User: Fold these one by one.
Assistant:
Number 1:
Amino acid sequence: MKKSNITLGIILIFVGIISILHKLNYWGIFSFRITLGLVLLFIGFIFELSYFTGRSGSGNLVPGGICLTLGLFYSIKPYINFYHFDFSWQIFALAVAVGLYQLYYFGNKDKGTLISAVVITVLSIGSTVLRIFNAAMPVWLNSGLMLSIFLVVIGIYIIYRSFK
């Protein structure tokens, strides 16, 4: 028997039992949202443990980082009010960046991996900041209007500099 098949079987049995108990409303404390986070944390720890114990290569760091980040997010999400924000895609992108950072730091030290992680992180955090900025500003003053005003100001500045 392959060890990976046994691990996959145990994970599926665990998820199935938790799902059955949730459907039967046996445990009031377990909801699918919390259970999903715990399962992802468990899978992430398995990936990370397999690398740090020397049983596998650094390729397990990326899925481990992704699962740990998403597991942490889904474990915390039911307890935090996001005020009607949907941060899902930014968290998914940030999870990939965390996995790439781990691969760079513990793995091959490839510059391409670091650049990819930085670009994904900047896009994810930048989009989140813009989304929060849009929600905090009045309806007529949003990032689209701010970008348009910024372009006009830059254009005026370039024309002014060309006449000097």
Number 2:
Amino acid sequence: MPARRIAEEPAYVLHRYDWSESSLILDVFTRHYGRVALVAKGAKKPTSNFRPVLLPLQPLRVGYTVTAEGLGEVHPLKGAEWVGGHDHVPCVVKIDTKIPKSPIFRFENFWVEAQGFFEVVQQVWMLDPGFHDPAKYISYKLKILRKKLKLWSKNLSRIVLLLSNSNKVIDFIDLLEEERCISLIEWNFREVVKHCILKLLEFRKIYWKKRCTNRWMMLGEENTKSFQSIATERYRINTVSQILNQNG
């Protein structure tokens, strides 16, 4: 049977279901054809004309194409127009306040592994605020600790810059080793830098894990840049750079 077009059909949306990332399946009740299943392609996109129209239990005029007869057939939606049903004008209400907001203190989990963190905490916790009320006592210490940690964190070097400089040092020593035999001091220095890189990569991993997304929850460390960097550095440590025989 050839397809036919249904236009300007009065209808109500009874239910709507997600079909894909951008489309919807609609359960629509029409005046002349009863209950009909329609697919609205791209209706969830921000720029779609269907998005503000296809609301449940709102009077609409819809147009769709009937591709075949029979129960269970889903027809493509071609157009939808809101008919109305009330006499008020939609408006946006915005509520704001003039009360100043305090800046948010963000505690980074990798601070615990950084040098000097526990010294700052111990110094603050040994202070005597002079309050007898336990709530005021703890509140005062936490406020002072927040202030001290903010000042202490400003002295921390940026992880990205440290990683970049450390990798440049490793590359320079590797190039130097290709030209001549490096000394024991240079070899030890390279091993220290490699271990520092691993520690910095662990800090970066903790930093981004705190700002987790659905991707981290689903995939964990699988195929991420941080995991690849750690694997590359471990490969560097386990790589044999030179093999000496009995003659040197």
